[in-house]
Amino acid sequence: MQVLTCENQSILKEQLYQDDCQTIMHLSLQKGQQIPEHHGGNAEVTVIPVRGAIVFTASGQAELLVPGKLVHLNAQELHSLRAEEDSDVVLVKSARAAGVVREC
Description:
0% of the residues lie in helices and 57% in strands. The chain has a single domain (24-97), classed as Jelly Rolls (Sandwich). Strands 1, 2, 4, 7, 9 and 10 form a 6-stranded antiparallel β-sheet that branches. It has a 4-stranded antiparallel β-sheet with strand order 3-8-5-6, with no helix packed on it. The chain has strands at 13-18, 22-29, 34-38, 43-51, 54-58, 61-65, 71-73, 79-83, 87-97, 100-101. InterPro entries: RmlC-like_jellyroll (IPR014710), RmlC_Cupin_sf (IPR011051).
């Protein structure tokens, strides 16, 4: 078992874990802070809010994400986000190709 802890709420991005199949990041956003439209490369991305509230936009659809409500994106799917209040988000990038998990 490996225990991971989100340590720093004063930096935007903190890598918690990485191996050949996945990367787990902690994002800390201040109220009003935005991350412009981008994509997660060839990885599928799951965004899990753990504190606060963010407006998450993908495919022209905006959704308010709060703890308990998460979003999953396909590889190359464009998205952006804006913090409605001070927020922490855990982001999981999973290496997948054409919907098939690589052998890890």
